[in-house]
Design a protein that fits this description.
CATH superfamily: SPOUT methyltransferase, trefoil knot domain
Distance between the termini: 26 Å
Number of domains: 1
Radius of gyration: 15 Å
Order of helices and strands: EHEHEHEHEH
Structural class: alpha/beta
Oligomer: single chain
Strand order of the largest sheet: 2-1-4-3-5
Strand content: 15-25%
Largest sheet: 5 strands, parallel
Number of strands: 5
Length: 157
């Protein structure tokens, strides 16, 4: 199952968030491959015309592959443990889903119209996180989920 991270904003190569994301990206692809998880595909979108959340939602929607499970990362979403997140990924994979797309909004969040279309919504807590850090946190949780499903030692909870 291909895993897409569709996010507003670009992380430049010289930003520390880029190095962290790339590290977990590589780890997930390596660990997930034998589990039929991956590759991880990143799509960065940017609203250069300043159309706000609605314009960002349109760009994000176009980045989501047709037929993909649409998952928003939103403070109103469901709080999951890492094992629960791993189990959810496995359920989508085992149900024959070819793609899952995790959508991360910009500074103002995700437009309500796109949130309403989501198949699932995840929260990383009640605090609001910078969208660049959310991308890193998601990549780490994807890697953690793959190690949980593989029975590896990374997750020790």
């Amino acid at each position: 199952m291909r895993v897409h991270v569709c996010a507003v904003g670009r992380i430049r190569a010289d930003q520390p968030e880029r190095a962290l994301f790339e590290d977990y990206h590589m780890r997930f692809n390596r660990t997930g491959k034998p589990l039929a998880l991956g590759p991880l595909i990143e799509a960065e979108v940017e609203d250069k015309k300043g159309g706000g959340m609605a314009a960002e939602a349109d760009l994000l929607a176009r980045a989501v592959p047709s037929g993909a499970v649409l998952v928003t990362l939103d403070e109103r979403g469901k709080l999951l443990t890492s094992p629960d997140f791993a189990a959810q990924l496995a359920r989508w994979r085992d149900a024959g889903r070819q793609d899952v797309a995790f959508v991360i909004g910009g500074a103002d969040g995700i437009d309500p119209s796109l949130r309403a279309r989501a198949d699932f919504s995840i929260s990383f807590g009640q605090m609001v996180w910078p969208h660049m850090l959310v991308r890193v946190m998601l990549a780490e949780q994807l890697y953690r989920a793959a190690t949980i499903l593989a029975g590896g030692p990374y997750h020790r909870a």
